[in-house]
Queue: 2 jobs
Job 1
Amino acid sequence: MSESASDPKRTVSSSAEGADPQRRSSAFQIEDLHVWFGNRAALHGISLNIPVHQVTGIIGPSGCGKSTFLRALNRMHEFIPGARVQGRIRLFGEDIYEASGDPILLRRRVGMVFQKSNPFPTMSIQENVLIGLRLAGTRNRDLLEERLEEALRMAALWSEVKDRLHAPGIELSGGQQQRLCIARALAVRPEVLLMDEPCSALDPIATAQIESLIRDLGQRYSIVLATHNLQEAGRTADCTAFFLEGRLIEFGSTKKLFTNPSQKQTEDYLTGRFT
Amino acid sequence: MNDFQPDPSWEALPLAAETRSLTHSVGIGRILDQGFGFLAVGAGISVLALAALLGWELYQGAEEAIRRYGMGFLVSSHWDPVAGRFGALPFLYGTFVSSAIALLLAFPLSVATALSLTEFAPVRLRRPVLALVDLMAAVPSVVWGLWAMFEMVPWLRQTAFPFLQRFFGWLPFFQGSIYGVSLLAGALVIAMMITPIVTSLAIEILQSVPLTLREAAWALGATRWEVMRVAVLPYVRSSLVGAGVLGLGRALGETMAVTMVIGNRPEIFLSLFAPGYTLASVLVNEFAEATSEEHLSALFEIGLTLVAVTFVVNSLARLLIRSVPFFFAPRPLRTESMETSG
Ligand SMILES: Nc1ncnc2c1ncn2[C@@H]1O[C@H](COP(=O)(O)OP(=O)(O)O)[C@@H](O)[C@H]1O
Ligand SMILES: [Mg+2]
C-alpha cells in the first residue's frame, strides 16, 4: 500500500528512540479520511500531514469531528459498532489500516490521553504507569523501575508522587490524575501522543501545568491535541488545523492561522462569529 | 463587644422566622414536599414494623421448642415427630450443602456467560440474550421442579450418576445406591434456577463499567482478554461477589423445586447420591400435618433458623461488598483547588 517513494521499512520503527526529524517530516500522512457512524458521515475526506516532533492542534466547535479524527489515528473506532473508516492513514510511511497491520501494536506506538482522566481505580500510581509495559510483556524489574521514573518525570508528576507510588491513582487530584494518564501513555515510549481535550475538565492552574507539559513534550514527541479552547491551541500548538462539520477548513502554522487565516470560515470562528 | 459570644438561640430565632416566611411563600410545593416526607417515613417505619412483627411471631411460635431443646435443636440430627424428637441438623446440613454446591456450579457459569456476552459476543446479541435470561429467571419454581422430576432425575439416575460413580466412585461423595432423587439433584435444580438470576445481575454489573476505563486499556494496546483482566474484572470484582451472594440467598430459601427432587429424608449422608432435606422443604412438607404443639413449635424454630441463616448470609455479603470501597462508595476525590496548595 505504501508509495514507492518512501520505503516503509526504512521508516518503520517500534519505538520512539532514534526518531530522525530530517528524514521524517510527517508522523501521520492522512489521505481522504472518511468516518461514518451508521450511515451518518462524521468526517468527509480529511487530508492532512501531522508533522513530526511538533504539537498539532485540532480546533473546531463541539461535534466537528475532532475526537473522531483522533480515534481514527489509533483505530479506536473498531470498538464502536457501526463505525466505518475509509481512506489511507500512514504512520511513518506504514499504512495503519492495512489488513496485516496489528491494532494492538499500533496503539503501543500511538498513545492516547482522554478528555476525562481515567486511571485504573484499583491500581496504585505505580501500577497505573507501568500497566502498558506489563501488557507489552515487560518483566525486567530494573527496566520497569527506570521507565516508571522516566514517565513520571516527563509527565511532571515525579516530585509530587515519588513518596507514595503505592497509593491508589484515584487519590490524586484531577490535574494530577490527568498527568498520571499522560505518564501511563508515555511509559511505553510511543511515537505519537493523541490528546483529546486533556484540559477541558481541569481548573486553570492544572490546565496551565498540563499545557506547559504539552509544550515540553512537543520537543520530543509528535503530539496531536484536540481542543475546543482556542487559547489553548494558541498557547501550545506549533501548527493548527481547523475543522468544521467534519471537514478540514484550514491547516497551517498556528501563528499564521490565528493572525492571518486564509479562509473566511476560520476567521469567523476565531472572531467568535459562530459557535 | 469583641469577646461577645452570641447565644445560639438568640441568633437562631430571627433566622428561623425569616426562613418560615420564605417557605410560606413557596406554598403548595412545600406542602407536597412535606406530605411526601411523611409518606416516606411512614413507609420506612412500616417495613421495619413488618420485619419486627415477623421476627416476633416466629419467635413466639418457636418459644416452646427453644425452651425445651435449647442448643440441642441445632446440633441434634434426630428428627422424628412421632417420637417427639426434634433435631434440625439434617436440614441445616442439606440447606448448606445443596446451596453451596448450587453456587459453586452456578456462579462460574453465570460470570462466564455474562463475560462472554459483554466482552466477546457481538453487541447486537446482547439484548436478545439478556431478554432470554430474564425470561428464564421468571420461570416459577414449581415448573422447574416438574421438569426436574420428570426429565432431570431419570437422566441422573440412568446416565449421569452411574457415570460419576464409575469414575469418581472412590470419593465418598459419589458412593452408595442411586435413586435419582438426592441432595445432588436438589443442588442441581437450585443451580439451574439461580444461574439466570446471577447471570442477569452479572451482565448489568459488567455493563456498568465506565467506557472510559475500557478505552484506557484499549488505547494502551490491550487485547480483549487483557481489557477484561485489567479494566473490567478488578472494577467489578466485589459487585460480582455480591451478585453471587444474592444468588446464594435465593438458593437457601428455595423451596418448591428442591422439595420435589431432594428426597426429603432427614438424615445426614456423606454421599451426594443419598436423599436429603432442607429447612424450607421440611416446612412446606410438614406444616399442614403438624398436629402436636411441640411439632408445630419445632417447625416455627426451623422457620426462625432459616430467616437467621439468610440474614447472616446477606449481612456477610454487605460486609464483603463494603470491604472494597471504590465501587459502591467511591472515595471522595480531592478537589482541584487542593492541588494548588500542595
Ligand atoms: N459513537 C458515536 N456514534 C454515533 N455518532 C457519533 C459517535 N461519536 C461521534 N459521533 C458523531 O460524530 C460527530 C463528531 O463527533 P466528535 O468527533 O465527538 O466531535 P468533537 O470531538 O469535535 O466534539 C458528531 O456529530 C457526533 O454526533
Ligand atoms: Mg470530542
Job 2
Amino acid sequence: MKKRTLLLTAAAVILAGAAVAGSVFFGALETSVVSKAVERPLGADEMKWLAERGAYVAVAADCYACHTAKDGAAWAGGLPFETPFGTLYATNISPDKEFGIGAWTRAEFHRSVRDGVGKGERHLYPAMPYASYREMSEEDVDAVYAYLMTREPMRVPNRENELSFPFNIRQSLTFWNLFNLRREGFATNAARSEAWNRGRYVVDALGHCGECHTPRNLLQGMESGAYLKGAVIEGVEAPDITKEGLGRMGFDPLTLARFMKSGLSAQGSMTHQMFEVVHFSTQYMSEGDLQAMAAYLFDLDALPATPVPPPAPAPVEVPAPVAAAGRGTYLNLCAGCHGADGQGIPHVAIPLSTNASLRLASPRNFVRAVLHGIPAQRFPGLERMEAMPAFTELLDDKALADLTNWMRARWGGRQPIVTDEEIAKFR
Amino acid sequence: MTTETKPLALTVNGRPVGPVDVPEGLMMQDFLHEYLNLTGSRMGCGQGICHACTVIVEGEGGALREMRTCITGAHWFAGRTVVTVEGHARHDAKGEIVLSPVQQAFIEHFAFQCGYCTPGFVTGATVLIDRLKRKPVARAELEQVVTEALDKHICRCTGYVRYHTAVRDLILATPGLVSG
Ligand code: FES
Ligand code: FES
C-alpha cells in the first residue's frame, strides 16, 4: 500500500515536471512585450517618415555590424558568431522577400526584435541581443523596420547554423528566455533626469552594452548581479564600465563621451570589437546621446561643464631586478613608438602613461596586445594609429612578465604580481 | 638633463664592436649612423612603418630575422650578430666587389629607381631566402610567400613588381628553395 502511494506520488511528480517542462518548451510561459497595436500595418506615409528616423536608430543599435559579413552584401547577414555551443550566422535582414525580411509584417518584426521569436514562431538565438532590444520603444522598432524596408533587397540565402544537440533545437530557447528575459519593457525612472533615463535607454536597449560588458551566467544569460562589471569576450576583456570601473581606467564623463565619438583618448584607442562599435555606431551618435550615455554610466543626472579627470593611480614600488629588466625591455622595444616616458606619438602610437589597459585588475588586454599586436586602424576625422607589432617571438614569458609588472606598477598603480605562468596562458 | 649610458658590445658585419658607452634609449638606427658611420640603412618614417631601416639579426640556430632599427633600441642588439646592407657584398680574391645574389638580382631586374628603400628590400629578401633554405615552399604558394615577405616594405618609386619578380626568379633559380 505504502509502496503504491510512493510510486503514485513519484509518477505524479514526474508527470507534473514533464507538464511544466512541456509548457515551457511549447512557450506557454513566454511573455511578450509587443502590444496588439503593431498588428495594424504601417501606412506608406508613416513608413516614409519612420524610415528617416530609423536610419539613426539602426546605427545606435548597431544592426549593420552584425548583419553584414566581412566583404559581404549589405544587410545580407553571414557574419559568424562562435559560441560555446557551436557557430551561429547572422541572418539576412535586407528586404528581400525570399531570403530577407521583405515578407515580414510589422508585428513579426516586433516579435523578433523584442521577444526573440521570428516569423513562423521560429525562436531566435540570443546572439541577437533581443534580451536588450526588449527595452526598445515601439516607435524605435517601427523606425528600424521602416528603414530596413528601404534598403536594397539582397538575394543571399541564410547560412545554416552549426550547433550541437540540443542547442540546434530552436524551441529549446523557451527555457533560456524563461530565465533570462525580463518580463517588462523599458520603464522610466521618475526620480532621475531625462538625460539619465535617455542614457539608460541608449546603453541598455539600443547600444546593448551589457551583452559584452556584463558577465554571463551558466546559461549564457547576462548576470544581473554583475551588471556592466566586465567580462571576457573572445579572449579580450570587455572592461568594467560601471562608474567605479570607468574611473579606475581614468575616464571622466566628458572624456568618455568624446572617446565614444572619436575612438581615441589618453586612455588608449578603441580595439577589437569596440573599434567596430565606434566605426559602425557610436561615431554617428548625436552629442546628446553620447553625453546621456556618459551621464548614465557615471550615474549622474547632469554632466559637469568641464572634464574633471580622476587622479592618476600612484606608482607602485617594483623589486630592482624586475624594474631593471622591465625598463630595459621597454626602452629597447616599446619606447621607439610609445616614447621613453610613455607619451606616445600623435597619429602613430598611443600614450601608455595614461593607458587604461595598464590600470585594469587583469593584465590580459595589455599582455595580449603585446603578444599578438593590433592592426593599423583608421578613426573618424582622418585620424589613425599605426600597427602595433606582435612581440610573441621576441619576448619570453619572463621578459614579458617583468615588462608587464614594471609598466603596470609605474603607470597603472598595480602591484607587480603577474607571473611567468600567467603570461604563458595568454600565448 | 643627463643621458644615462650603458656599455654595448655586439657583432656588426662580421666585426666585433664595443664595448662602447651608448645612451640607454638610443635607437639602433642612430647607433649605426652616428657611432659606426654605417649609413646604408635608411631613415624613412622613423615609426616602424616603411621598413627602409631594417637590418638582419642572427637568431637561434643561425636563422635570420629582420629588425626595424628606427624603433628598436641599440641595447636590444647587445651580444647579437647584425648584418646591415653594407655587409652583403664581398670582395673576391682580386679585390673586386661581388654583390650578394639578392643585390645582383635587383640590379638585373632594374628593381629600384632612387634606391632609398633598397637596403630594406635587400634585407627582407635575404631573410626570406634564408627561411626557404630551412623550409622550402611549394611552387604554388611561392608568389604569395614573396608578396607577404616584401609587403611591409614601402617603395615610393613603386618598384614593387620588379622587386617581386627579381626575388621570385632568384628563388626559382636557387636549388632547394622550392618543393614540388
Ligand atoms: S624608418 Fe624604420 S620602418 Fe620606416
Ligand atoms: S626605389 Fe625609390 S623608394 Fe623604392
